Prior knowledge:
With about 300 residues, the chain is mainly beta.
Amino acid sequence: MRKVLWLLVGANLVFAQGQMGTLKMAFAPAQIVANCERESLQSVIERAPPGAVITLLEGLCQENLVITKELTLRGQSAERSILRGARPGLPVIFIQSEQPIVVTIEGLTLADAPKFSNDPRHGKECAVFYPELICPSGLQVRGKAQAQLREARVLRNPWVGVYVLDTAQATVQQTEISENGWGVYVSPQAIARLEKSSVVRQRENGLEIWGAAEVQGSTISSNGRAGVEVFGETKLLENAILANRQAGVLLSGNAQAELVRNTLTENSWGIAARLRQCGYLSDDFRGSVRLEENRFANNRLGDLCLP
């Protein structure tokens, strides 16, 4: 029997008749249109029911958001819908929940979180540096929350572009992460996935992975330190890792890394371990690496420096 759908928009109800004729009822997500020139986006988020889809109109919104419920925040495009940080030392978007939730952010630019202080000492940029680590990042995800960032831009945030802490998870797809302190930082026990994205021109490492990460089909280029520094578990598949000031991939501590069909060009080392023989101050690599069909060219110190 053909499946039949009825949609009652006013009641947000969907009825579906399956193959056996059983009538099922489910609530469709609430659809909310937000105009931050008329009302703060944070107020819209607080009023929205869990699971809502909030569509942001074109323009610039200057505020910091805190999200503690499951929802989708959708812009018109990363070029047309821009969210700029307003409060010093805080992330542009802060997602936190001690229960599993999924928050989806699409078609937005997250930019210019202001520093708490211009004092050059490490951590002074943050509203709370230790132990809470509330810092001027583009997107910060904490607790058990899961964030999905799609077709977005994360620009010019002085701490981290995408900051994943605790046991949180983040999936980043078709997103530009540019000119932040670090591009992506994944703390121990956290998980990140990066697909078809670019991580370019960070002040520090492009990606710093203490937990677990998988990076596929992405460009990691022109970062101030390593393209990717691995302390935890990382799989790199079919990426372009080029023109980073230090190693394209740097393996530190107990790193467990797998690199398959990547192109590594114009870095210092293509792939290096944190060892004296590679020019580092101490021997600090006790992990392992598996390499398969990677391509190297024009790395200044050489392609590989491994035990």
